[in-house]
């Protein structure tokens, strides 16, 4: 169970334009028989965002991610990743085109508020891991044309553009690669927000030094609260804010605390996920998969998982260090996010309750929920217009 949401916090939440900067929900679109328009239960099918839960949780929308797992850096691997990313992007577009009564594309910062006022969900598109772009940065313009407005450079491993914060081999480039520097310049030219989440601290240093527009961390946390490579220290947090950037606090448990998972649970989940491939499963096979996962939860419960309090500590620390002009929300729903007490999108008003309890004003809360990232987006758009005009 989460915390009780006061009437005041609920009213503020309902008035706010609420955007999450990292929705991995497009992965659910590939599951046979799964529909974004139907209500689902996180405890039975493990998904966290759908239209009914967005409505219940007052989530107006966000940045829907084209996520591609890191693969080989050879020609075959790059082509496979490119094709996968294009198809995932098309799946997002099909979601909107099939239900224009409930979803609408947003391409510019100014698009979000009118869409939300109309009662529709805001669909910005993002790319998590630039790996599918191969070695031709001009391919970024294709994804921009599709609607992508935010791009992260790397994921769990180093790639052709940047070092990852979590590659077990350590750094390869010492930040952005020469190709990564070209990619950043192309982002500035087109009007795409540079995203440093998953990339190393040295990549963030390069973004802050080289980008002509602010950068964000679309789903990250604070090392001062939990020292994990995916989180950033307070000095980097202040440097990000000094350049106009924003950290979007995530709820991925492994980045919030050092949870102890029993060997039995770890082994059972490893065996189950070894041949997962949910997008390739029949409905019957997926039902069997979910039943096995539920049985693992019953036999070996995750009793030491991160909690609502761990998420609260991250959010309030970031706000203490850089203030409400430089903090936002990027929960990592459907990509591993969610903690005990804050399980899916239906519970988002609890975050507003945290902010109300901490004494933040409604204006501050509006910034945290969307104002800050939209300010960054507007600055990115302005830089693109300047460059394209030859300025």
Automatic annotation (TrEMBL):
UniProt-recorded Gene Ontology molecular function terms: metallodipeptidase activity
A GO biological-process term: proteolysis
Superkingdom, taxonomy of origin: Bacteria
PANTHER family attached to this UniProt entry: DIPEPTIDASE, MICROSOMAL DIPEPTIDASE
Protein name as it appears in the record: Dipeptidase
Species name: Novosphingobium flavum
């Amino acid at each position: 169970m989460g915390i009780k949401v006061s009437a005041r916090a609920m009213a503020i939440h309902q008035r706010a334009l609420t955007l999450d900067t990292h929705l991995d929900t497009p992965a659910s679109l590939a599951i046979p028989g799964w529909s974004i328009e139907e209500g689902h239960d996180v405890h039975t099918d493990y998904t966290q965002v759908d239209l009914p839960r967005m409505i219940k949780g007052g989530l107006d929308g966000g940045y829907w991610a084209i996520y591609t797992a890191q693969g080989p850096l050879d020609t075959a691997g790059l082509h496979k990743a490119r094709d996968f990313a294009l198809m995932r992007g098309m799946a997002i577009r099909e979601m909107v085109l099939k239900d224009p009564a409930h979803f609408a594309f947003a391409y510019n910062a100014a698009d979000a508020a009118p869409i939300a006022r109309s009662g529709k969900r805001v669909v910005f598109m993002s790319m998590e891991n630039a790996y599918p772009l191969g070695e031709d940065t001009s391919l970024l313009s294709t994804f921009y044309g599709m609607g992508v407005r935010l791009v992260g450079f790397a994921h769990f491993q180093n790639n052709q553009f940047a070092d990852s914060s979590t590659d077990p081999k350590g750094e390869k480039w010492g930040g952005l690669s020469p190709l990564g520097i070209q990619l950043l310049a192309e982002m500035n030219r087109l009007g795409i927000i540079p995203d440093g989440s998953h990339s190393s601290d040295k990549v963030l240093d390069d973004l802050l030094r080289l980008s002509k527009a602010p950068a964000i961390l679309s789903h990250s946390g604070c090392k001062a609260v939990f020292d994990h490579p995916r989180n950033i220290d307070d000095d980097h947090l202040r440097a990000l804010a000094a350049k106009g950037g924003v950290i979007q606090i995530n709820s991925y448990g492994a980045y919030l605390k050092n949870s102890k998972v029993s060997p039995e649970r770890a082994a059972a989940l490893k065996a189950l996920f070894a041949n997962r491939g949910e997008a390739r499963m029949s409905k019957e096979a997926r039902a069997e998969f979910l039943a096995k996962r539920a049985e693992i939860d019953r036999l070996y419960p995750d009793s030491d998982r991160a909690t609502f309090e761990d998420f609260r500590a991250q959010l309030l620390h970031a706000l203490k260090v850089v203030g409400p002009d430089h903090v936002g929300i990027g929960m990592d729903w459907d990509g591993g996010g969610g903690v005990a007490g804050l399980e899916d999108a239906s519970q988002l008003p609890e975050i507003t309750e945290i902010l109300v309890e901490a004494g933040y004003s409604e204006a501050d809360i509006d910034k945290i929920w969307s104002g800050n990232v939209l300010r960054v987006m507007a600055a990115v758009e302005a830089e693109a217009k300047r460059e394209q005009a030859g300025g």
